[in-house]
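Design job #97: recover the sequence.
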């Protein structure tokens, strides 16, 4: 049996702390983990999302720079059968949707980005949310930088019967799919039961 002094000297462990930050004090029971969450500190989840966003942004900026400096606008270079490198300036959002939307596209993108970040900050322990958030934030910022600097986005990957796209568009697409899985996938449904 431990003495009271030894118990007070013991460093706190994760099970001692509830979401409110109170330890095992009188009247403060540890809260059960959120449904669909994993034990991860908010700072760790935020760092993971920021790292993913930074990697997406660096790859996006480097590839766009290579295209802008190495491929003339309108040029087509065959890489593999059905895959072409092109240089297209897109005024719409991902895959040329809403072309010519201008300020409206910019405002809607910023609102969606802020809503996603707010949701993530409220639920950083939700399994996979950090990855979806990092991909979406990195992709959105990559295309926003283009939009702010030149009024359009540089797209350069062209597949048959599909609009040209870029690294940011790929990150946004994968991020949306992951976000839907995080929010509505099998793990989310099991957590609701």
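Job complete. Output follows.
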């Amino acid at each position: 049996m431990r003495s009271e002094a030894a118990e007070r000297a013991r460093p706190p462990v994760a099970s001692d702390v509830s979401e409110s930050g109170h330890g095992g004090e009188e009247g403060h029971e540890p809260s059960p983990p959120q449904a669909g969450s994993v034990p991860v500190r908010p700072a760790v989840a935020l760092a993971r999302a920021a790292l993913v966003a930074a990697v997406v942004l660096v790859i996006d900026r480097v590839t766009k720079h290579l295209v802008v400096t190495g491929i003339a606008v309108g040029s087509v270079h065959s890489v593999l059968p059905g895959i072409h490198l092109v240089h297209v300036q897109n005024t719409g959002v991902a895959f040329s949707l809403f072309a010519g939307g201008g300020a409206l596209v910019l405002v809607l993108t910023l609102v969606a980005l802020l809503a996603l970040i707010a949701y993530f900050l409220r639920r950083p322990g939700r399994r996979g949310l950090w990855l979806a958030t990092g991909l979406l934030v990195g992709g959105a910022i990559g295309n926003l930088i283009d939009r702010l600097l030149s009024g359009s986005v540089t797209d350069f990957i062209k597949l048959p019967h599909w609009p040209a796209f870029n690294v940011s568009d790929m990150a946004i697409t994968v991020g949306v799919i992951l976000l839907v899985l995080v929010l509505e996938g099998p793990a989310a449904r099991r957590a609701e039961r």
